[in-house]
Specification:
This protein has twelve helices and 33 strands. Strands 20-19-25-16-17-24-21-22 form an eight-stranded antiparallel sheet, covered by helices on one side. A seven-stranded mixed sheet has the order 2-3-1-4-5-13-6, with helices on both faces. The chain is globular and about 75 Å long. The structure holds guanosine-5'-diphosphate. The site of guanosine-5'-diphosphate has 22 residues, from helix 1. Guanosine-5'-diphosphate binds next to helix 1.
Length: 553
């Protein structure tokens, strides 16, 4: 089923680890009918964490792109990891998203990674809604978390819901449901149907005053956005629902405010209103500015390389799209592409604007977590996301575009790797296999690098943290049937010394002690001065450049 562009929502669910992104995503998939039973993070049965490694650890590592349908909207969800080792994954997702749901824990409030992902979303101007989850936890507080979002994130949350009760006591869960501040109704969720059914009722007397206060705050925030509505609000102390929804949408899209909801995904409370809000308040691809790029290889006489060019999100424009993830698949690598303009058609050939080579688009797939379905129409329109089989050379961040209308979109930038290890196959017969495996893994994961150290001959892999490298090592075992040993690189420290005179030669001992390696490049002149004898004795004119000298100090 392909939706018209204004009904498409490309969203991410972002948060600090453990805030409940995966559980919330699971509930969404359940209500949207993608899965027949919601999976549990704690049982390792979720649909988004389909990678065995993720299920085992209970964290989300790789962004899984999933399509679901809700009340006429086609929602592409990119589940993103919260662990600090995988921040680059979040960054790449944000690049291709139009909107985000930011999940907070009502108990922990705004956490370190909530701040990081919030800033990343700011960087890409991604409109957001907030979901304050875990309202059932002991010590949970809606108001405290709401204030933290305001202060620590310098955001402008506007509550569209408040909780009915919060936290738990020794006798049970006190959080019972939510109050919808737009309709001024209570919503109680039925646990038997895992929240699929819920009752809409009048607000209990004990919560009425509180609900009215919060609603007034919401109305004031919205009235401020429009002079006419403000006047009307002063007169009537109310805003018609139609105006309210329109202004909330406009302000969410331009980043002025963030509609805020609450619930407990684990207890099946309050997830559907978040899904409703994704359609109601988050942008369609049409609400986003045209995508900007440059002309990589001008054909026209007057065109200059690097000339800025842009594409509107329309099927009538020439095709352009960005590869934002490459995932291993039984039948070959699956490239996830965000189509910005034109149509992506199976059987077509596109230009890879980075390499200048043509890539074949063999098949188009829509991905529902671990299941996938071939796109019947063999065509994906501007604004949508699809998995593609065929491209051989494309890597994450590449632009694929119409051959006659080239455009190079700004690539996705990845941070430098922070940790390195030496890796070798358990069996020396697997050297070639190791090489091929590392090549595949680094194509799929741009924050993973593998190089051969010229001097020691060791294969050095580097990544974003210990967890990152460990996960990749386990993938080598499981996906590629390759056992490897990892250890510290033999060379712990190396200094390249280019000396013009002896005074410019500096020798530093590594703080960890151990061997010190110098690559000495000397312009050989009579060598005198305060250079240690052990070095001088190993330096002989004519032998030095570019040999490696090991110096014991
Ligand atoms: P993620 O790391 O953000 O994806 O978080 P998960 O969805 O994996 O959840 C982390 C932990 O919090 C798991 O043990 C969940 O069962 C638990 N959890 C998620 N949502 C809730 C909730 O609403 N209430 C409570 N009490 N626990 C929750």
């Amino acid at each position: 089923m392909s939706a018209s562009i204004e009904k498409i929502r490309n969203i991410g669910i972002i948060a600090h680890i453990d805030a409940g992104k995966t559980t919330t995503t699971e509930r969404i998939l359940y209500y949207a009918g993608v899965v027949h039973r919601p999976g549990g993070v704690d049982e390792g049965t979720t649909a988004t964490d389909f990678d065995a490694e993720e299920a085992k650890r209970g964290i989300t590592i790789y962004s899984a792109a999933i399509t679901c349908h809700w009340k006429g909207y086609s929602i592409n969800i990119i589940d993103t990891p919260g662990h600090v080792d995988f921040t680059a994954e979040v960054e790449r997702s944000l690049r291709v998203l139009d909107g985000a749901v930011v999940v907070f824990s009502a108990m922990e409030g705004v956490e370190a990674q909530s701040e990081t992902v919030w800033r990343q979303a700011d960087k890409y101007n991604v409109p957001r809604i907030c979901f304050i989850n875990k309202m059932d936890r002991i010590g949970a507080s809606f108001d405290r978390t709401f204030q933290e979002i305001k202060k620590r994130l310098r955001a402008n949350p506007v509550a569209l819901q408040i909780p009915i009760g919060e936290g738990s006591t020794s006798t049970g869960v006190s959080f019972e449901g939510v109050i919808d501040l737009i309709k001024m109704k209570s919503l109680y969720y039925d646990s038997e149907s895992m929240g699929a059914k819920f009752e809409v009722g009048e607000i209990a007397d004990e919560y009425l005053e509180q609900a009215q206060e919060w609603r007034s705050k919401m109305l004031e925030a919205v009235a401020e956005l429009d002079e006419k509505v403000l006047e009307q609000y002063y007169e009537t102390e109310d805003i018609p629902e139609e105006d309210l929804l329109r202004l909330l949408r406009e302000a969410t899209l331009n980043g002025t405010l963030q509609p805020t909801f609450c619930g407990s995904s684990l207890n099946y409370i309050g997830v559907q209103p978040v899904l409703d809000a994704v359609g109601e308040f988050l942008p369609s691809p049409l609400d986003r500015p045209p995508v900007e790029g440059i002309n990589p290889q001008p054909k026209k006489r007057n065109a200059e390389a690097g000339e800025p060019t842009s594409r509107a999100p329309s099927v009538d424009e020439p095709m352009c799209g960005l590869v934002f993830k490459i995932q291993a698949d039984k039948h070959g690598d699956l490239c996830f592409i965000r189509v910005y303009s034109g149509q992506l058609k199976s059987g077509s050939r596109l230009l890879n604007a980075r390499t200048g080579k043509k890539e074949l688009i063999s098949q188009l797939w829509r991905v529902h977590a671990d299941a996938r379905e071939k796109v019947e129409t063999d065509c994906i329109d501007a604004g949508d996301i699809a998995g593609v089989i065929g491209p051989k050379e494309a890597v994450t961040g590449d632009t694929l575009c119409d051959i006659k209308h080239p455009i190079l979109l700004e690539s996705i930038t990845f941070p430098e790797t922070v940790i390195s290890m030496a890796v070798e196959p358990e069996s020396s017969a697997d050297r070639k296999k190791l090489e091929e495996t590392l090549k595949k893994l680094s194509r799929q994961d741009p924050t993973f690098k593998a190089v051969t150290n010229e001097e020691t001959g060791q294969t050095i892999v580097s990544g974003m943290g210990e967890l990152h490298l460990e996960v990749l090592r386990n993938r080598m075992q499981k996906e590629f049937n390759l056992s490897v040993r990892v250890h510290k690189p033999r060379v712990s420290y190396r200094e390249t010394v280019t000396a013009v005179t002896e005074k410019e030669v500096e020798f530093n001992r590594p703080s960890s002690g151990g061997d010190l390696y110098f690559k000495v490049k000397l312009r050989l002149e009579p060598f005198e001065g305060d250079v240690p004898v052990s070095i001088l004795s190993s330096l002989k004119p004519g032998e030095l450049d570019p040999e490696l000298h090991k110096v014991m100090m």
